[in-house]
Design brief:
Two copies of one chain form a homodimer.
Chain A: H1 2-10, H2 17-26, H3 35-45, H4 51-63, E1 68-70, E2 78-80, E3 86-91, E4 97-101, E5 106-108, E6 116-129
Parallel strand pairs in A: 3-6
Antiparallel strand pairs in A: 1-2, 3-4
Helix pairs in contact in A: 2-3, 3-4
Chain A binds a DNA duplex (25 and 25 nucleotides) through helix 4.
Chain lengths: ~130, ~130
Amino acid sequence: MTDVRAALRAHDINPSAQRVAIAGYVLGVTSHPSADEVWTEVKARLPSVSRATVYNTLNLFVERGLLRQLVIRGGSVVFDPNLEPHHHFVDDETGEIHDLPWDAVAVQAADDLEGYDVREMQVVLRGTRRA
Amino acid sequence: MTDVRAALRAHDINPSAQRVAIAGYVLGVTSHPSADEVWTEVKARLPSVSRATVYNTLNLFVERGLLRQLVIRGGSVVFDPNLEPHHHFVDDETGEIHDLPWDAVAVQAADDLEGYDVREMQVVLRGTRRA
DNA sequence: GTTCGTGCAAACGGTTTGCAACAAT
DNA sequence: ATTGTTGCAAACCGTTTGCACGAAC
């Protein structure tokens, strides 16, 4: 995974074996995993990796802009490698989080919001998947 | 606070002293407090109240539809007595959550979302307050 | 006297932190 | 040698739970 190493270096992150393994998993995922889920997955490839390293590494990735952190579900934070503007759908039954394309929801940016400097806008839809 | 007792009864909740105290505070608040913040405030009026009672009572209020629970910030869930449709603004600097009127943001409900039954839509804006 | 509500303390789950060992330069 | 990275265990914080006491009909 040379491109993973390159991505890490591009974000000023030393590509250690653990970081490459974690990035190799989490940068390609679409399932919005929690830190513990990432740990479980990465352990399968690199059994010696510790939970602390996974947590710290994910936080590092977020700080360095490789990853986005979403606060959508109670209990645990989830991670999303998709850095492009998009929305999220949370399945009430399964808890699964799905990406929605940005233009699936038309958000009329209310520029007339007196007193607020809006940096980002997050739209979360909740419901169930239809057959 | 007779109306608080009435509100509790209207939602099939026995108005015990603790519940009245908790409701008396949280139903009138606009600050989106966490459970622990509610506990601190209510203890000032009713020092004997326990943390467990506050947590359990807030969950009961949510179940019974007196209160809404918001997952917006990491770390802790917050409560919002405003049941009408509205949006939220999170101040990056202070962490404060402000209500935004529903029509401050025009969300074009994407009815064309194939495969999704949308039950609710949550819009969270993040940024800073302007002087 | 049975039911419901409460307080306490312990348990819990996700996450962070202190620290000593370990690479790598 | 110095600097950065890791693993382990313990600490932490928000929250839930088990249980025995107490209040109310």
